[in-house]
Specification:
By secondary structure, the protein is an alpha/beta fold. The chain has helices at about 10-15, 25-35, 85-100, 150-155, 185-195, 205-210, 220-270, 275-280, 285-290, and strands spanning about 40-45, 60-70, 75-80, 115-120, 130-135, 170-175. A 6-stranded mixed β-sheet has the order 1-2-3-4-6-5, sandwiched between helices. Helix 2 packs antiparallel against helix 6.
């Protein structure tokens, strides 16, 4: 029997298995509260078409759809594989959540606020930060002012700006975090990236995670499922890294060939003898004549 001690399961697996349990909502509450900047209290997990687990989804994103105490919808997605259209996927996810939870005949007042939290383990977009927040802002074309809700609407929705009613997006580019954890949110990102939590952490949610997400507390079935998950991730990263290295090598080879061709074209334009060009570049007369 393997002794796991205080080893903690990775967040991307825990969120699919353990953090869905009501007893563990406090861990998610802490993480989301630090990220969104307001107190979040998950009341229940919801099911949607994008929230189903299948036998062949081990490399796919992990979807969690939750409802907080304000009845806002919170989507949490973890994506390991690079995806060109991931931004469109985020948009689709929020749109689908909105339409799934309003029924024909309902008033527009039933439309929920949606938070989309995207934890990605691949390069996405271009930027210097590891956390990005996006929301709608309605700006005056001529005045530059922000469109605000009416007094009545502010009382009704407990929000100030029109954009506050629209979905908000958070993108956590986990692999871009290479700093010393200074803030509680930094400590969460460090956990997301490394699966490790400092023993002396003062963040209550992470202290809870250390207690509730220990490998030693898993059942035999859960432990086997977790080990399969880790092995699948290891294989996946090996495949991706091999493909990347092969692509870089091929690109370098193509770059060298193109550089040689440029040299040949330049030498020919200067009227240098073909024999000299062949001797200098190592190309055959036939290849040089083609250029």
């Amino acid at each position: 029997m393997v002794y796991y001690g205080d080893e903690i399961v990775r967040f991307d697996w825990a969120i699919k298995r353990l953090l869905r349990q009501k007893a563990n909502f406090a861990v998610l509450n802490s993480f989301l509260s630090e990220l969104i900047g307001e107190k979040i209290s998950i009341q229940r997990m919801l099911e949607s078409e994008g929230n189903k687990e299948t036998a062949d989804d081990k490399f796919n994103r992990v979807d969690v759809l939750a409802e907080n105490s304000k009845r806002d919808l919170i989507i949490i997605e973890i994506q390991n594989n690079a995806e060109v259209y991931y931004f469109q996927r985020m948009l689709y996810g929020t749109s689908k959540a909105i339409t799934e939870y309003i029924y024909e005949g309902d008033e527009y007042s039933k439309i929920r606020k949606v938070y989309s939290v995207n934890i990605v383990y691949f390069d996405i977009g271009q930027g210097d930060d590891y956390i990005y927040h996006g929301k709608s802002v309605f700006k005056g074309v001529h005045t530059g002012d922000t469109l605000r809700l009416s007094v009545k609407q502010q009382e009704k929705f407990t929000k100030e700006d029109v954009g506050d009613l629209f979905p908000e997006y958070y993108i956590l580019r986990v692999n871009e975090f290479n700093q010393h954890a200074v803030t509680p949110l930094d400590e969460w990102i460090k956990f997301l990236k490394s699966g490790k939590i400092d023993e002396d952490t003062k963040v209550e949610g992470l202290r809870l995670a250390r207690r509730q997400l220990r490998m030693s507390s898993l059942s035999r079935e859960e432990r086997m499922a977790y080990e399969r998950h880790i092995e699948n991730r290891r294989i996946q990263w090996d495949v991706l890294n091999t493909a990347r290295d092969e692509g870089l090598a091929e690109g370098r080879a193509e770059g060298r060939a193109e550089a040689i061709y440029d040299v040949v074209r330049n030498m020919k334009s200067q009227g240098l003898p073909v024999e000299l060009i062949a001797k200098t570049t190592g190309l055959s007369r036939e290849d040089i004549d083609k250029l």
